[in-house]
Write a structure and sequence with these properties.
The chain is an alpha/beta fold. Helices cover 36% and strands 21% of the residues. The chain has 14 helices and 21 strands. It starts with a strand and ends with a strand. The structure holds S-adenosylmethionine, iron/sulfur cluster and FE3-S4 cluster.
Length: 493
């Protein structure tokens, strides 16, 4: 397996394929007497979402319109499923949805189905689609997203299914792609791809290949462009952003990215995901404390509070080591929020191990926890461990853990009540009814109303709220969010 940087020749071929597809779909559209549509389903993490923004950009360049039908299973002329394989239920979800599309293909509502993403790196999944879902036209893995138009064109020309699974790890800069961003104010910016950590339970290193970092200069150029385009929040992405730069020869680290990015004053929020405790540097925490536009939120996966379990997970830190980082974060980033991932029921986890996890959750006073029941991922080391935990024990422990973590999240929300916090507005709340939503710099979700005296002021425009900053007085707390009333805009507009 090798890492291959895509070059200008690849880009020429990419652009030519996009152009040819544009012609092809225009012809189909004429035949149907209406614009052609696409539907894109994203099953995975934020890196998967970032890939989908690129896929959406390419689909638009092909002349396709996003299907106006809402819901996951909207019929569309071209359907792309961007899969995730991190846990078993993600796999089940795809196969369930693929089954539903059979009828859309039969009725002619759907002409093309492409399946990509992490599940396609697992040979059994590809085999299952080959055998049981003959109406899928194209299968490709996440490393080949930069070849999507080329592969799609090939499949359509050959008029038969195309399967392209590469043994190489490619790296393409974001400038290679047309990108259609999901949100007007937030840009997802992957800074690295793949993972070298091989935690024994995890499929990601197999699905996403070896760790490789984008060029520092290209990232900075992209950030400057995003700022000038009006983006107010950037989310720097990688499976382990703290090991950014290893393998590049300019010596730049993740802290250097944060340092430079935070000098771009147009950005109100610089967020990042994910950090691994083994690589998190003190300089990153110092910068989080010092720079006003770096979020005061650290997501740092703990996975387990037992050193024995951590060892078997191949997570090279101890519970005490984790607590040292947590304490340093709490001391340097005042009022910051600390969130984590925890797996329950890892092979060999004893009741004593599990109790240690509960204890450390309380000590760390996590502001939110993403809790998962261990899911066997075929091909990973832990799948071969002999002492898998019975399902009923896992369920029982999971219930105890979520009771605790829910109460920690509630307490974290409660602490905000009575305070005025600056919010970056994300839009109209899902709850509707004149309620808006946004996030604090600590990533707490805030639903709020806007008093009439603000709404009635000249220049107020509901459609232009996304990405604006305002102060909200927090008055009420819910289990996972808080409610409040807006006091004023704070961005001077
Ligand atoms: N790279 C990130 C890190 O190490 O912090 C994690 C990324 S992973 C996509 C997100 C989370 O999924 C992990 O932190 C872990 O808690 C969970 N996860 C991964 N594999 C799992 C498995 N086999 N069963 C249950 N949860 C799993
Ligand atoms: Fe998976 Fe571990 Fe890599 Fe995170 S660091 S993606 S959990 S192997
Ligand atoms: Fe899933 Fe792949 Fe992300 S397995 S969690 S989509 S890296």
């Amino acid at each position: 397996m090798s890492v291959i940087k895509v070059n200008n020749t690849d880009k020429l071929e990419f652009d030519r394929a996009l152009e040819e597809l544009r012609g092809y779909f225009a012809m189909l559209s004429e035949g149907k007497g209406r614009p052609l549509t696409y539907s894109l389903m994203t099953y995975g993490c934020q890196l998967n979402e970032a890939d989908s923004e690129k896929l959406a950009g390419m689909l638009s360049e092909m002349g396709l319109e996003k299907s106006s039908q809402s819901g996951e299973l909207a019929p569309a002329d071209v359907v792309v499923m961007n899969t995730c394989s991190v846990r078993e239920n993600a796999d089940k979800h795809l196969f369930g949805n693929l089954g539903v599309y059979k009828s859309f293909c039969k009725s002619g509502e759907t002409s093309v189905i492409a399946v990509c993403g992490c599940m396609m790196k697992v040979p059994e999944n590809v085999e299952k689609i080959r055998k049981s879902y003959p109406y899928v036209n194209l299968i490709f893995d996440p490393q080949q997203i930069h070849r999507f138009p080329i592969l799609l064109l090939e499949a359509l020309k050959k008029r038969k299914r195309s399967v392209s699974i590469s043994g190489d790890d490619y790296i393409a800069e974001d400038s290679y792609f047309p990108i259609e961003r999901e949100r007007r104010f937030r840009a997802l910016v992957p800074i690295m791809y793949g993972c070298n950590n091989f935690c024994t339970y995890c499929i990601v290193p197999y699905a996403r290949g070896r760790e490789r970092s984008r060029s520092f200069g290209e990232i900075m150029k992209e950030l400057e462009t995003l700022a000038s385009q009006g983006y107010r929040e950037v989310m720097l992405l990688g499976q382990n952003v703290n090991s950014y730069g290893k393998g590049n020869d300019d010596g730049k680290t993740f802290a250097d990215i944060l340092d430079e990015a935070s000098k771009i004053t147009e950005f109100s929020r610089i967020r990042f995901m994910s950090s691994h405790p083994k690589d998190l540097s003190d300089r990153v925490i110092d910068l989080m404390g010092e720079r006003p536009n770096i979020e005061k939120h650290l997501h740092l996966a703990l996975q387990s509070g037992s050193d024995e379990v951590l060892k078997r997970m191949n997570r090279p830190y101890t519970a005490e080591g984790y607590m040292k980082i947590a304490d340093n974060f709490r001391a340097k980033v005042k009022g910051g929020s600390l969130t984590t991932d925890i797996i329950v029921g890892f092979p060999g986890e004893t009741e004593e191990d599990f109790v240690k996890t509960l204890e450390i959750c309380e000590r760390a006073a996590f502001d939110a926890c993403f809790t998962f029941q261990y899911s066997i991922r075929p091909g990973t080391k832990a799948a071969t461990f002999p002492d898998q935990i019975p399902a009923d024990v896992v369920t029982e422990r999971f219930g105890r853990l979520t009771d605790l973590t829910n109460s920690l999240t509630e307490a974290s929300c409660n602490r905000l009540v009575g305070q005025t916090k600056e919010i970056l507005i994300e839009g109209i709340s899902k709850a509707g009814g004149g309620v808006y939503s946004g996030r604090t710099i600590t990533n707490h979700l805030v639903n709020f109303t806007i008093p009439d005296e603000i709404k009635n002021k000249e220049g107020f425009c509901e459609d232009a709220l996304e990405g604006r900053l305002c102060d909200v007085n927090i008055q009420y707390s819910r289990p996972y969010s808080v409610d409040g009333v807006m006091e004023r805009f704070t961005d001077g507009k």
